[in-house]
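Ticket reopened. Same input as before:
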Amino acid sequence: MPEDSITLTFPDGAKKEFKKNITGLEVAESISKGLARNALSVTVNGEIKDLDVPITQDATISINTWDSDEGQYTFWHSSAHLLAEAVQELYPDAKFGIGPPIETGFYYDIDFGDEPFGQEQIPEVEKKMIELARNKSEFKQKEVSKEEALEFYKARNNEYKVDLIKDLEDGTITFYEQGSFTDLCRGPHIPDTSLIKAVKLTNLAGAYWRGDVNSKQLTRIYGVSFPKQKLLDEYLEQLEEAKKRDHKKLGKELGIYMMDRMVGSGLPLWLPNGAVLRRTLEAFLRDEQVRRGYKEVITPHIGNIELYKTSGHYPYYQDSQYNPMQVDDEEYMLKPMNCPHHHRIYSNDLRSYRDLPLRLAEFGTVYRYEQSGELNGLSRVRGFTQDDAHIYCTHNQLKDEIKKTIELTQFVFKTFGMPVDIRLSFRDENEDKYGGESEYWERAQQEIREVADEMSLDYKVALGEASFYGPKIDFIIRDAIGRKWQLGTVQVDYVMPERFDLTYIGSDNDKHRPVIIHRAPFGSMERFVSILIEHFAGDFPLWLSPVQIKILPISEDFNDYGQSCADRFKEIGIRVEVDSRSEMIGAKIRDAENAKIPYMLIVGAKEKENGTVSARRHKMGDIGTFSFDDFFNKVKEENTSRSLPPNHK
Amino acid sequence: MPEDSITLTFPDGAKKEFKKNITGLEVAESISKGLARNALSVTVNGEIKDLDVPITQDATISINTWDSDEGQYTFWHSSAHLLAEAVQELYPDAKFGIGPPIETGFYYDIDFGDEPFGQEQIPEVEKKMIELARNKSEFKQKEVSKEEALEFYKARNNEYKVDLIKDLEDGTITFYEQGSFTDLCRGPHIPDTSLIKAVKLTNLAGAYWRGDVNSKQLTRIYGVSFPKQKLLDEYLEQLEEAKKRDHKKLGKELGIYMMDRMVGSGLPLWLPNGAVLRRTLEAFLRDEQVRRGYKEVITPHIGNIELYKTSGHYPYYQDSQYNPMQVDDEEYMLKPMNCPHHHRIYSNDLRSYRDLPLRLAEFGTVYRYEQSGELNGLSRVRGFTQDDAHIYCTHNQLKDEIKKTIELTQFVFKTFGMPVDIRLSFRDENEDKYGGESEYWERAQQEIREVADEMSLDYKVALGEASFYGPKIDFIIRDAIGRKWQLGTVQVDYVMPERFDLTYIGSDNDKHRPVIIHRAPFGSMERFVSILIEHFAGDFPLWLSPVQIKILPISEDFNDYGQSCADRFKEIGIRVEVDSRSEMIGAKIRDAENAKIPYMLIVGAKEKENGTVSARRHKMGDIGTFSFDDFFNKVKEENTSRSLPPNHK
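Engineering reply: fixed in the latest deploy. New output:
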């Protein structure tokens, strides 16, 4: 290999030789014109860089386009600069704080001085951004000394940037320029502004400088941007659809849950319809777990603080826990997790290798402190019920048990019509924050990869994303409107068996440490139900609907026949109600539609005489007249098979 | 009516005229010789008195025999005196503290000075008691002045009685004498010692004088006594049987629950078998409740302290609650009851008379502080799950709803083969501790009595036993060995609707207050399961057994056939296990018998060939060979009908 050559390794493992100091853009061009046109940044050895930075040595490389998180991150970072450029054009005295990319989009914190800035000013800024984007201004990096940087911002009376620069070390400071705008920034950025084709400024908020309530409050402008107008349109449509499906709105309308100031913040109360939904989900998972050899346990909601000192969660996670309570001469805590209680159950008996794997499951309610500003409906609460389980097994059983937990998780999400992406979160060997023996980590990561391959899973590996006690598998589900949610997790744990001194007697009659798998397919009942409500827009599958059938007698003369139909359904556990009010049939249908009840059965003289029912399906209208028995069997089959609703996307 | 006559009213409501100053004994004699022979004391206008006390005016009266709580109370009080007489004979220098009757039996606290007294001395005291009892010494009351009383005990160096007398008012002090023994005592007592035919001193303990750890520790001798030797024999047999059935012993052996020092005091952890038992009981009651129009809710285990200030439970019941936790600027408490949470759910909607009755049910886990010395297995714990419900109804619906709650409670206990006694706990009109309007109390008590009569219930009325917020109905069940347990309760509540400002819109379009019924048939899952374990001695009915069938293949060759049988049972939700170990069949049977598994199915060559099973019933041995289908149907029927075990008393 010539001395001025380097070898680059691509994401698919392919290796290729290039001349030294080649740039990311040139690498992209060497692959295809299209790729070069769409390239936004390049990741070299795990670090995202500008496309024009020379690559000086052998490296792993990936060209980041819009289709990758890294590409979007770069795109939105540059869009924040474009926002600032537009604001600077329109408000020459505005002073800029910080402007980072976020999970979806970006924001910039700006001091408008005495200048009024509100919702009315937004369209003008959006227009200016598109106008400036069309200039095709390049993002140019410039190294500056600390003195130069300070002088630059002092001349502009920008105390915020001055404040930031003071904390930086001389020799590490860079500016980025595009058009008439210069920003203190580490980058990286996209090649030029013309890639930004569509912009929407989504929100305005107040934000204290550096989050300090004693500092000045700046105006935070949130935005999102796209390389195509069509992508923005789709995004706005999704936002609109999400608003309609908002679980806080539907949760109230459908009587799923309530929040109450007097009961407390972040503590949902499950109303009758919500309790049916939750109990049905729990029964579904419980039955499935029994079938797969799990054993249920029930443990208290508090525990002696010794449990959490032993696990190491106290005092290190104290900020996310409720304060301890003094009882006699002991301290007790609301349990922030179920694990220590389960470990004590494991320890309650002498365990032999013949008893393993031992799979202990609990719908365990835990309490964690969250800032009140972070609380959000059912999706972010202070008390929630995990569909928790801990599998205690030997190292030889680990691979098989991991496979079984993946199968269970897949089965669960398939039932809800939710596609799943899988991420294998492994340790970064360069970091030494991990517990447990290296040999076990290697073996477990190897086995997890083997299982994923054997099961032909489509997975990504994320180095450095493991928990400190072992590698894990994360499940990212997509809902009906394409949003991604990280739900179920499967975690291997080498640390707690040590801390709780868990042992089993092996076939060699010696004591050994088991390994633990922590897993929770739903994650928490509260958060999962919030996602289910939005996924189905409240139009739950028959088996999950709090009321499955509403029988609507045409007049009071047919209440008896309606009731006799209802009784038949009740015998097989179908949740049915009879609307025996003296309302017109139209009103009864409207109310049942609004309550999103899957089936409405209209019964009058003809139905009573012939032993039939006239059926309507929610959102589909009339589906015809059936003999009672035919309809009964149809419902029974749909309920047992847990079919998705016919109109579900 | 002559001037020297009085009218006495008997428990059955009958009234009869007697001469003034007649004694209880004379009244008994006027009824029957047998009653006079068995009479122990008399209750006049609610107060228990000696049989020889003259009755001076019209009164309600009941003659107390051994069959009444009042009779046993008198009997055991006199037995305490007999114990003291015996001790005085044997230990002339012994000094006596207090010696009251208790729920079962009596005790006396005695200072033996330097004299050793222990278990070895007990038989001699028992013998002496019986010897003295045969003397037929009468219990004679004597009024004494405070001075005389003090002199009497100072002369005997008894600082304890002197201490007691100091607190008494002159003119109210009485002594009782029998044989050579005199005691400071208010009475009442039985006529003479000869009624005491059988005595057992059951326990010795240390007891500080007046419960003060800084005072001297006396020796407390516990005992129990009976009017017939046969009753003592039965009692000792029951004690022995109770020991065998002890839920702490069986709970451990059968894997129902565990306690763990590290998790905390009084906080049971339900092990897999216990969780199956508890979930099965919950499902049984839940289904029954759904059928009867209840709606389930689920509420958090903590609540803002405002809830308990509003209900009035804080700070007045602070001693039995866990300390509050500070969260931001609010205080939260582990909930000691579910009521306030349910009341807030009621308030969450505008309620109309059409929505009532609203029956909200929850298996709600609550936490209450108990002294660590009071904790006892599952029967006295610090965290427990109530099978709670609150029925919100109009005053017109109250009677019907009370009837329905009684029916549900009766249905529940009948399922477990537990006879139920009913106590109507009403207010004592002479006390003014009760909340709510008098008119409502009168009406509710009247309606409760009507319901009880309409249902032909065998009930007792207990005046003064109501809760402060309304009358209640208590259910006292008898277990298989005759012990009584107070379980389910139905309470009417007029106070909380006021405190929580609960309203509904009546048909008159005005706001009204609903009335609340609190009810819990099991009371708590923990305590009920402790009673169930002892009631069934761990031999649960099929439907409740954690493992219902164990299949025992004769050798490994028949594991497959065994498994195929098991799979059939699993399809209908029967809990079945296959013992596929390479053990001898005798060992497999022994292990299954020890685990108290209802059915054991032995399968070998013959069974496999013929598609049969050879069945054993726990404790009954071989019950014959069945075709698989016949046995399957038999088990299905027994499970569905919730039959009691064939060998259940």
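The mean pLDDT of chain A is 94. Residues 70-243 of chain A form a domain with the Threonyl-tRNA Synthetase; Chain A, domain 2 fold (CATH 3.30.980.10). Please confirm and we'll close it.
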